[in-house]
Amino acid sequence: MQAGIFYVNYQLDIDFLKEFTTFTKLKSLITILILLFGITFTSFAQIKPGISEGIPAKVIRLFPNPATSDINFEFQRGYDKSYTLQLFNFMGKKVYELIPSGQRIILSLNGFYRGVYIFQLRDKRGKIIDSGRFQVIR
Questions:
Q1: Which member of 34, 48, 98, 136 has the greatest number of CB atoms within 10 A?
Q2: How far is the C-alpha of 138 from the C-alpha of 135, rounded, in Å?
Q3: Is the dihedral of CA 59, 61, 65, 70 positive or negative?
Q4: Reduced to 3 states, what is the DSSP secondary structure of residue 136?
Q5: Alpha-carbon distance 43 to 6, whole Å?
């Protein structure tokens, strides 16, 4: 009678191990699929915008950054005369706005406080064409 009980317990342990290994294999497969999906998703998210993908590249190049006395905004390619350049402080308050008149704008930073500023280039409908940030140091 004692041998029969041992046999039943042994058989239950074998069944448990079969289910456990099946569960472990399924868990491993799901982990691998999640990992592959994550790698694929992040690789798509890190594609740099450029002309080849149909997304326009940066329109404005600014220098020096960080700036002390003045900053240069230079248009990389043809621009529309109706564009507006807006500057915001780090708190989001508009501190300056101008309509570009040429290929390069030299902006004096007199009256600008030390800190980070955001620029936005907008078309006549208000759509943001380009944006970025720069830092003023004193």
A1: 136
A2: 10
A3: negative
A4: strand
A5: 55
- Are residues 74 and 63 in contact, defined by beta-carbon separation less than 8 angstroms? yes
8 A C-beta contact, residue 134 and residue 72: no
| One-letter identity of residue 1 | M
pLDDT higher than threshold 60 for residue 50: no
Nearest to 100 by CA among 87, 123, 81, 128: 81
Q: Do 104 and 79 touch, CB atoms closer than 8 A?
A: no
**C-alpha pair distances (Å), 34 with each of 27, 44, 55, 59, 74:** 11, 15, 29, 38, 44
Range among 28-32, 93-97, 103-107 rated most confident: 93-97
Cβ atoms of 131 and 118 closer than 8 Å? yes
User: How many helices (H) and strands (E) would you count in the chain?
Assistant: 1, 7
